[in-house]
Specification:
single chain; mainly alpha; 19 helices
Length: about 400
């Protein structure tokens, strides 16, 4: 059973992922009590990034598999990725390095922020190599979240070539090997004195999520795909990944640091299970499926890219001394700032989508039109080929 078309449930899942990330940073930048169980639970929202990685691996691999063997394979892929990622990202860099320092008197940047924004190291952000410098070189708070974009962009450099040059069977072997070797590589790094923060940011240590997403895409695009098998695979992944993630996140790695090597494997497995159960719910009328198809959740998924980029700068500004001097610093104010920061971030993201991002993304349609026109022209000498292509 081969399924095609847009999966609405994955938009809802993207909405859940961005909510997890925003909640984590809302607590992190607020003065709300940090030692309570709610704050502890909120801190685990960083796993939303892992969910984003699995979704990215799934969607990108699916696109590449569909385009494999077609004209302008690389050009279309990289142009579309550039249109989606670069405009908003480089606009953020312009604001961070060109505008934000002038606002420092109003938002009261900490003493350590200004040198980071004025340093020559900004080139690594332009080249999307900033994750290679973390945590040895601290990141400006308003750009700290861009490390995950760097990992994805580095993944995009290699993965299209592997998809083009390898059969699906060989890709499966490669991805399975990456999944097995990733925790081994993290363990070796830990045993040789590399700290957990470095492992968190460096691409070679964070390939579990992208690999699992790619494996799901290969399965989804195959002729042996089955919703029933997907459901059971999701149940197994969740049954192993969720308890394992919670146990490892609860602090047990403090006493057994080698278990840190398994933490990201467990989170990746739980994230992959979540993606598979969302795919399964596509053809169901279950509560889960209806929830993931909720308009408000899918809308958050639609604006999630900008929301991911802007929410930290918003909370950073709201956490400045100017706000505290006007509103105070009690728990009620902290909760208000958390909610208000989300409203501001979502509003900015909505404006970005309708006035900026969606306009740029329309250019992707021109690439599709150009691609189909090339197919038609290439098939003129072979009428039978035209019928197959257009039919």
């Amino acid at each position: 059973m081969k399924m095609q078309g847009h999966i609405l449930e994955l938009d809802g899942l993207r909405g859940i992922a961005i909510l997890l990330v925003v909640i984590t940073h809302a607590f992190e930048f607020s003065i709300v009590q940090q030692d309570g169980w709610i704050a502890k639970l909120a801190s685990w929202g960083f796993s939303g990034v892992d969910l984003f990685f699995v979704l990215s691996g799934f969607l990108i691999t699916g696109i590449l598999l569909d385009a494999k063997g077609l004209p302008a394979y690389f050009r279309n892929f990289y142009l579309k990725r550039a249109l989606r990622i670069w405009p908003l990202y480089y606009l953020l860099l312009f604001v961070a390095f060109g505008v934000f320092p002038f606002l420092s008197l109003h938002v009261h940047l900490t003493l350590g922020e200004m040198p980071l924004l004025e340093s020559r190291s900004r080139l690594v952000y332009v080249l999307l190599l900033q994750n290679l410098r973390y945590p040895d070189t601290a990141a400006p708070s308003i750009l700290a979240m861009t490390w995950s974009l760097a990992i994805e962009e580095q993944f995009y450099i290699v993965w299209p070539w592997l998809v083009l040059l390898s059969t699906r069977k060989k890709l499966t072997y490669i991805l399975t090997s990456v999944l097995v070797l990733s925790p081994v590589l993290r363990l070796l790094a830990l045993l040789h004195g590399i700290d957990g923060d470095t492992i968190y940011y460096l691409t070679p240590f964070r390939l579990d999520d992208l690999s699992l997403g790619a494996l799901i895409a290969i399965w989804y695009k195959s002729h042996v795909f089955s919703l029933c098998r997907t459901k059971w695979a999701a149940i197994v992944a969740l049954a192993v990944g969720c308890p394992g993630s919670l146990w490892l996140l609860a602090g047990h790695v403090t006493h057994f640091k080698s278990l840190l090597a398994l933490r990201y494997s467990a989170i990746a497995l739980a994230s992959a299970g979540t993606v598979m159960i969302a795919i399964w719910s596509r053809q169901t009328d279950s509560i889960l499926g209806r929830s993931l198809r909720a308009r408000w959740l899918r809308y958050l998924g639609k604006i999630s890219y900008c929301l991911y980029l802007v929410h930290v700068p918003v909370y950073y500004a709201l956490g400045g001394r100017a706000v505290k001097n006007h509103l105070g610093s009690n728990q009620e104010v902290a909760i208000f700032v958390m909610i208000f920061g989300f409203v501001v971030s979502a509003s900015v993201s909505s404006l970005s989508w309708y006035m900026f991002e969606s306009k740029i993304l329309k250019l992707k349609g021109r690439l599709e039109y150009s691609h189909r026109m090339n197919e038609f022209l290439n098939g003129i000498d072979d009428p039978g080929r035209i019928v197959v292509k257009m039919g």
